[in-house]
## 1
Amino acid sequence: MYELKFDPDLCMACDTQDCLVKCQHMDIDQETARTEILKLADGEDSFVLRDCVTCYACEEYCPNGNHPFYLIVKMQEELGMLPLPDPLVKSGVQVGIPFRGEPVIDEMEGTVLNMGVFSPLLGRVEGSKLFEGLPVISHDSRKMFHYFCQLMYLHYGKTSVINERLDGIIQTLASHGAKEIVHFHDECYGTYTSYAPAFGIEVPFKSIHLFEFLYNRLLELKDEIRPLGYKVVYQRPCSSRLSSDKHPFVAKIFDLIGVEYMDREYKDENAMCCGATILGQKKEGSRVYCAEIQKKNIDDMKKAGGQICVFNCPACMQTLGMPVSKAGIMPLFMSDLCRLAIGEKVG
Amino acid sequence: MSSIQQELVNIVGEDYASDRREELFTYSKDLGTSQPLWPEYVVAPKTTDELQAVVRLANETKTPIVPLGGGLTLAGLALPQKGGIIIDLKRMDKILEVNEQGRYIVVEAGISHGKITSYLKKNHPNLMHSEPGAPPAATVGGNLAIHGQGDLAHPYGFNTDMVNGLEVVLPTGDIARFGSCAVGSGWYTMHPLPDIGLFLGWNGATGIITKVSLKLYPCKKFRENNMFVVENEEFVPDVLFEISHLGMAEDLIATSSEIPPMMNRLHYISIINTGDSEEELEFKRHMTFDVQLAKYIRSGVGGIVSLYDERTRPQVSKSADWKKGGGFEYVGAIVPVSFYPECYRRGSEISGRHFIPYTVLGRVIGSCHSMMFSWSYAFNRADDATVKHARDALHETDELVMEINGTIWKPAIFGQKLMLERMDQGALRLMKEVKKILDPNGIMNPGNWEVD
Amino acid sequence: MNLMEYKYKDMIHRCFRCGYCKFPTDWSDVTNCPPYARFRLESYSAGGRLWLIRAWLNGELEWSPNLANIVYSCVGCKNCVEKCPHSFNDDVVNMIIAAKTAMVDEGKIPKAVGEFLTNVQLHGNPYGMAAKRREDWMEGLNLEPYKNQEYLFYVGCEGSYDTRAQGAARATAKLLQKAGVSFGVLGSQEISDGNEVEMMGEDALLEDLAKKNIKMFTDLGVKKIITLSPHSYNVFKNRYPDFGGEFQVYHHSQILANLLKKGLIKAPEQADARITFHDPCFLGRWNEEYSAPRKVLAAIPGATFAEMARNKKGALCCGGGAGNFYTDFLGGSEDSPARIRAREADETKANILAVACPNCLTMLEDAVKTEGLEDKIKVRDISEILTA
């Protein structure tokens, strides 16, 4: 089985301990942070395992390219301290089991689009100029779990499930023959470019981040862009913590399509979790805490003067879309916003 | 043309009476596993007068009659066990009165539940009625004839507990009214008159319900489906008990099914909370999850799956297509809530024996006073072997309900026999007498609730 | 007929007969399936019909004239497709059309259907009228035959021959002239578009008509077509490409809305008009165009607009589709869909019932008369309202 490549020496030598010091959900001083992360690296218990809301952020905060979040999740499982109640874990683990037949493997060449588990959203990309000439790996939403990157199980403390299933998923994706894959969801991107290398899992294709793809595509369609002029706020998802090098594309896209990227407290590295997984955590008060951070997040969006809240992750959209819209801010996927900018209608 | 057909045409007009095979065909089959049973005539009266004339004709000629509403019972209850005339009541579908402050609606009994829902939404958005779990084509009369239950079952009980007045055409063709409408013109209560509970739950074997006053209930502005999950089925009765202690949920349903895998061997409890404001909803969420169910979450054996979800009407008929086969049928039982674990375990065993992915559901009726527990069996209508498996599974389930001392809900003929075999002798004698007095010629849906 | 030959043999048994197909989008009644609204016996609902067809195909039921009538009472309005909750919903109407095809193949169709199809085959129109009379509607309009103009105005059989529908054809042509649109017509060269023929199950005749039309259009250099009828619009837009005919197709409501927007025509002020609109199935449910005709009506100064309770996706069909404006399987009752619709229009207190389809125009005008409402409400094509 795959093993996490985690180097405790890097933590020992680290002079910031940003991984835990910067955590938005735990109040930890530098001294404690050093002690706790090293305890975890030694396989020992730590309160961090119980208090972690699994927001992925420490993976980005780490200045050394170490993998504190993967370590926390791994230890949650090894020490039997899963963040969610058992039936939620079981339900989550079972969600990813394909049950509607095997996928049809079409031979494909060049660069393709992988919707991952979100093929029900295919209608948002099909027929758009943005995705013209980019064949989709699987159109059949009944087969979506064959393309499910599994990284969601980080929220469940279930590294073992990811490591058990990921090979098969990678094989299915690779069997289509494409060498380059644009991932609709950046959790997939994070899986193949961050998680897999961290665990030594081989990935035989090159992954392209959706926002990088969209930016380059918009450059090609530059003549058709009509600046939209909206004030936008951005809901940065947990999975983006695994691809922080691609985060600058958010501002670059906004700039290109002529929307104003509003400054706010929960921006960039300080982005706030949508709360989806916090809601059901077994730690006392999780439901109320979830409601609180959601309120803070949306209040912050309003304060920033956002007319549109741009989403990257469909799960964030599902969680926050409705309350954001109730707050008078229009929720929109990044791809849909880009479509609007080139004069396309979105449903 | 036979003389009965001619008479029927004379009563309702030629468009609405038929003895042609093509029209009878559809009435010879229902949606479940029952073998076809052919009527000789079908008639669709528009008014109570027409209906009375049809019933008188049937009584005079000793022709069996079978009243039909939406025809959605699945269990063959509206199939003509002994031939005769199917009376399709769906043209008797008028809304006669809504009393907003008195919170009731008077309707003709052939009206669909969908039509009432739509009417109230448009004209009285602060009122609602109990729509059964069936598709919206289910009718009010049909639902009462089988003791239906649906939305609002947790706070208010069976649909038959929500009746405020009743008009019935008796097997002789005469009309009888019950409740305040029998005394004056108001349809506001069934009480405090002497109880004559002879028509509800009788599958139309004692009379045909023509008009009903249904109780309406406050319809809150917001309605959300909050979902809780446990793995151990033994916890389900207590979870339901804890939530029903609050008395706030509009509906309370536990489900488990093999497909999709997410539901497999897990028990999802849907808690419908409502409110006129976010404050009201948040108070209910708080009481439900942070107070009543906190012990389950804390100990890691129960979890919140989702909150805030919109309540969507269940599209029960989708279950029929799991095997791309267009069919399912279920046994429902009215049992104490505490029976949930055993019902689930034994039911999933029956499903396993018949190669059908298990699907079970328990809906709380009243303040945990009872539960409607259902075991559904999907089949492929084009594959006789799967139909037989489903039919056998249904029979085994009927027997299971008897074994565990449950009561079969809207039993098919097979289930009715099992219940009658066990029935208290005094009750049995009374049922027989009642039937003899009301229906001396035995024309009313014969074969149903028939005491030898 | 052998079940094995039926295109939907692996699907038709999947209908559960749950009855969603009877309802409009707002659940307001079980009467949104036109034949079910008319007859109210289960066989006439979409589900009942599918079960009957299956019984016929697998030998449970013999074919009979009554069976054929029941199958042909489906007007193809697609309400069932809209409401069926199952994954095969898109094919509900297709399954019924395929059964009609099976009946055509076996020569077992109702007499009126046979007449309709024979007339189209022999005369190019369902009325069995002479080709030269196709030009009757044009009298005095000084229209040009199509020759390299920007648009072909395809009038269709109803607009050409039916005396009431001719009014809509004339009004549309006048508006196009007034706006300076470059267009021509086919006159006596025009033949049926084939939409109804397909809805009646006569595949081969559709193919024949489509190929003839495509050849004629192509030879004439037609690129853009304006249709009077949503039925023509549907078949040109969605079916002709299957036979190699790719044209830019517009329904007249879309063109009129655009001309109004551009100010090339102006709607006359109608201060006393209270207008309601009946959605044609082949514009609405078949092609999801709900806004263009409403934009036209919204442009009329002074007029007020009132929706009927059942509208857009949930509209009740006039009962004239699939050739029923000719075969009339649903006529003769106060529960005929057109008469129900006339009463619903009256309930809005409108004095104009606007339509955008020549079939609806004739069906509803007759219904308004039969209901005795002609003094209260006038049935008008949107083009006629603009030329009032």
Note: The mean pLDDT of chain C is 97.
## 2
Amino acid sequence: MSTTSTSSLHCTFRVAGLDFGVAVEDVQEVLRHQEMTPVPRSPEAVRGLINLRGQIVIALDLRLRLGLPARAADERPMNVIVRNRGEVVSLLVDDIGDVIDTSEHRLEPVPSTVPLTIQGAVRGVLSLPDSILLVLDPDRAVDVPTAPDATGGTP
Amino acid sequence: MDDDAEIIAEFLVESHENLDQLDRDLVALEQDPGSRDLLSSIFRTIHTIKGTSGFLALGRLEQLTHVGENLLSKLRDGEMLLTRELTGTLLVMVDAVRALLAVIEETGGDADTTVDIVSVMDALTAAMEAPAEPAQAPASAAPAQVAAPVAPIEPAVLTEPAQSDAPAVPVQPTAPANETPDDEPRRGVADSSVRVDVDLLDDLVQLVGELVLTRNQILQRTEGREDVELLRAAQRLDLVASELQEGIMATRMQPIGQVWSKMPRIVRDLANQLGREVDLDMQGHDTELDRSLLEALRDPLTHLVRNALDHGIQTPAERIAQGKPAKGNLHLKASHESGQVVVEISDDGRGIDPVKIAEAAVRRGVITHEAAARMDPREIVNLVFHAGFSTAEAVTNVSGRGVGMDVVRTNIERIGGTVDITTRKGEGTTVRVRIPLTLAIIPALIVAQADERYAIPQANLVELVKIEGEALTRDIEHLAGAPVLRLRGHLLPLVSLGVVLGEEQAQSDALTVIVVQADDIRFGLCVDDVHDTQEIVVKPIGRQLKSLGMYAGATIMGDGRVSLILDVPGLARDRNLTAVPTAVVATQTATDDTTALLVMEISSGRRAAVPIVEVSRLEEFDAAQVEPSGLEEVVQYRDGILPLIRLASTIGLPETPGEPSRLNVVVHEFGDPASPHRVGIVIDRVLDVVETTVTRSDVGRRPGVFGSAVVQERVTDLVDLSAVINRIGVGA
């Protein structure tokens, strides 16, 4: 048995050229691009609200959440719907990969050269034969740092 | 008295449940006589019933359970071992308790001697005194076998203990209970109510919310279709969904008595602590509201009650010195009023002194001297709701920390309610809390801004105003860059929704203003467009957006898109409007002589006008609602009767031929503002509201008409309302 509580099955996806994984238990479903209602003056990473079969779900852009460059306007993100502390949040990613079994790999600490914005949302890395998988910590990934309101305030 | 009945009803439901459990436990205990868990549970049950019955002065029930409890405590402590006979005796006791409960339900007390408790108590006592040890072997060994060992004690008690599922058999006491007098199959308390998991109810509300949304969607899609079957099905769906929604909402309704049941104790303790004497009087226990609201209301109400004792009601000595009875009165009243629940907390204490409040407010920098001077006493009193405001001379552990009223108001606003204070120095204070009936589904106005729609809760709406053309430059002024609207002689601060949402300020040739109100703040919200009013299902938005105060939640529209619900108090805070009390806003623009007029059409296209200040409301009635009363025509209106006056014929003009199916009525109030007289003036239609300088001419002067003036380039009769009323003799 692994020393961490991480599952050995990970759902993988790509964000700005990086490979990420999140334990399958945390993933409710994966959806194509959904229509979104923007939330004016919300933190930048909140891209909008999605109607998920009657439930209202916040869509967080992982690129912006992790401090990575924004997606080109014509690229449509995919939704990885994660369930966390009773809340359901959609993480917007570039592309969906396979579900992989990582039981043979050990979770290693995130190399300290990785930007802090990413370190803060990641549990560790798995060194796979052909790539390095950053394992997301959904607890922290779905939180948005409440930056001071950048727009619309009274001067 | 009502109170007691309610407590007893609760006690009955609870006890019935407990007794069912007791039956099961006793039977299980027979299989496993050594189980301490079971014995403790049985003991607790009887102990609870005993305790409550003592409290409710149900003497016979208390006696019976007391003896039972003694026996059970011996069993629990291992002094005796349970035998079949003992089980039988205990079951007989349970039945006697049941019979007593039935009597209590019937008569409200347990004095009825048809239930024989004496023989049951004797049996219990006898069982306790008899040596119990010999019974232990057979009882534990073969409980399943039919052959009961010869009973060492009270053979009469157990006729057929083997039929343990039929505890009604054994002794007389149960017999009278079985043949309770009335044969009507009246459902007992325990049968007519079911305990339901709150989560399940919440889920149902969620689901019904979905259903309502889906219904809205279906209705939107079927609109204008030719398919009759489909339309009929959609209508049925509409109906069923509405009723289901009502039904589910009703299941969540709980009486406010639940909160109030705690009050006597709180008041008693506090009164002792503070050295006050207080009579607590509570009315409207059965006023129901949604359980989530009830929860949210619990703390604010408790706080208000504490305040009333701490700040309101004086010490007996003080009261006597002021010529009041030593005992203060605290009065709680809940009632339904036009779709809202109104809770009043009033005391006959010292009241609030506006002068003191104003001083304190200025001292604490809540308002300026100038602002204080302009405010009327009522507005000043409401300053106690400002954050960081407290006039308590000493900080006590009861109240006076200066956060209280602020938090009270925030909590009440959070559930869409309002709170205000009326007070008379030396006579007392009344705090009135208004709350919506339910939280989950609310009517809202849908507006458009940029490409999105937003919902504004109906509860915050005052009116809609459209300003175009020259009115745009005439009525809107900029005070140090802040736009204000002159509206019927008042200045209304304007807030652009676009700007609040972070857009660039745009110029346009027309302005749609939604006048909204959140407590003492009223402002105009400028939006791109107004859609319609809809029932929306309020859904939470994630904690990631919690810091955005201007949203109250989100909802799903008929087309499946998500829309944000605007939080009007939040918008006001966002724009720093909190510090602007209405007094400043409401300052009369007395500098020019314009009058706001309501221009009406009567008598086949003639124009007439009244000052808008004379108009309290515009109403529309169905012609069928009009009833004759003597020589007058009246309609039922707001729990009263509204006499109608046909304006045209009263001022000597012919009525427009033909009887319309709807009557347009201007409601005019006069007399004492506290309980005004009302009349309804029937007109053809409202043409406009204009603000203009009136140059009156005596042309057309006649009874009921001051004269005429040119309004919007047309000659218009200026109606003399008091003369009109006098001519008819209404309310005189």
Note: The CA atoms of residues 499 and 505 of chain B lie 6 Å apart.
